[in-house]
Write a structure and sequence with these properties.
With 210 residues, this protein is α/β, with parallel strands linked by helices. The chain is 45% helix and 19% strand. The two termini are 24 Å apart.
């Protein structure tokens, strides 16, 4: 199924770990009709409180590799020593049901997804500073010092890819950042190209030359 054959939009939200991406995305999904969050597959072990099939599809490397070789992933990447991937079949199924899809992935996965769907809407969530990012990561209490230092080092490289996205949100205040994220989704649904795909009969009747 090509992107041109469906009316659904694909949003890609990217950020370094600790920038607040997951909090913003969960709020957006809860408040936005017909917007589905893709649940990634990962070989990372669950963190406390995470549920298989809700937060991630947790699996071992052998199963992940089998899915990769079968072409089941829209994108996949190795991040901080673990593998992550997004199901192509699930996304096209959501589009077929009239839903938009949001991917919460890293910059490597975003690049792969854009290669297949170049009209995907990229949104980068930035921390207000690297010092603030370090404070957030330590405040989680889920990673040891070595892991935090590795994530901070990776953040330098990840932020360099901000210009791969059409939009950038600096998450200094959660409510402000959420309002900005929601406005991007709302505006994207109102572009002429999107409206033409969603209401083809209307535009073919009144504007056959468009």
């Amino acid at each position: 199924m090509s992107e041109a054959s469906v009316s659904g939009l694909l949003f890609i939200v990217v950020a370094p770990s600790g920038a607040g991406k997951t909090t913003l995305v969960r709020r957006l999904i809860a408040r936005t009709p017909d917007l589905a969050l893709s649940i990634s597959c990962t070989t990372r072990p669950p963190r406390p409180g995470e549920v298989d099939g809700h937060d991630y599809h947790f699996m071992d490397e052998a199963r992940f590799d089998a899915m990769r070789k079968a072409g089941d992933f829209l994108e996949w990447a190795k991040v901080h020593g673990n593998y992550y991937g997004t199901s192509r079949r699930w996304i096209t199924g959501q589009w077929a049901m009239g839903r938009d899809v949001l991917l919460e992935i890293d910059w490597q996965g975003a690049a792969q997804a854009r290669g297949m769907f170049p009209d995907a809407i990229g949104i980068f969530i930035l921390p207000p500073s690297l010092e603030a990012l370090a404070e957030r990561l330590r405040g989680r209490g889920t990673d040891d010092a070595a892991v935090i230092e590795r994530r901070l080092a990776a953040a330098h490289e990840e932020i360099r890819h901000v210009d791969d996205c059409a939009y950038a949100i600096m998450n200094a205040d959660l409510d402000t950042a959420y309002a900005q994220l929601a406005s991007i989704v709302a505006a994207s649904r109102l572009t002429l190209s999107c409206q033409r795909r969603r209401h083809p009969e209307y535009f073919e009747r009144f504007f056959p030359s468009l």
